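From the shared-data thread, chain only:
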Amino acid sequence: MATPATPDRALADASRGAAPRDPPSEFFRHPATRTCQVVPVDADAETVSQAIKDADLASSPRVRALTVLRALPDRVVRRVRGLPPQPAPRRTIEGLVEGGWWVRLCDQPPAALALGLVMWDDRVHQEGQTRRLFDHPADGSVRVGWELRVQPLSDHHSLLITETMTEPIGDRARRRFHRYWSMISPFAGLTRRLAINRIARLAERRAAIS
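Structure, as tokens:
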């Protein structure tokens, strides 16, 4: 088995070797937070890329519980305003995009998939997540970007790298988001870690039988 590269080295290699794309960094000029996670995978880049779209991210009870927690503020707002509840989140990344929970920013397999959403924008309750709202967020809202990219190490080994950024829009949003992030960041980080581990294991199972 090849020795996995260190996260720092992997990120440097990924930034040099990945195909041209529109990662969250191109949309977030002044991010308030920026977090990265790296997982070595015993599978080729194409297999990992397909697993990103196919993995059942909600199969873990902890992921389901954390997803419910994240959706709770929106459910409260919708109930108070008499709006219909948003459909339950689907179990795959493709399903989350199709269901209006995320908007696709770019999709360049096997190099990268980038998603975005807007928090605290009242228009989302009416329209769902759309690229128009992401590109033109309201003052007081927060944009969130999540990129998953694959860095090949050999014919049978890859790195799955995820990067998440947030950008509050305006001073009021920055103050509010600072308080929010101090509470939610441990849960958000755990959710992402569980999700990418699920993707990595699916890719490895497929690679083992191919």
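The first helix runs from residue 7 to 17.
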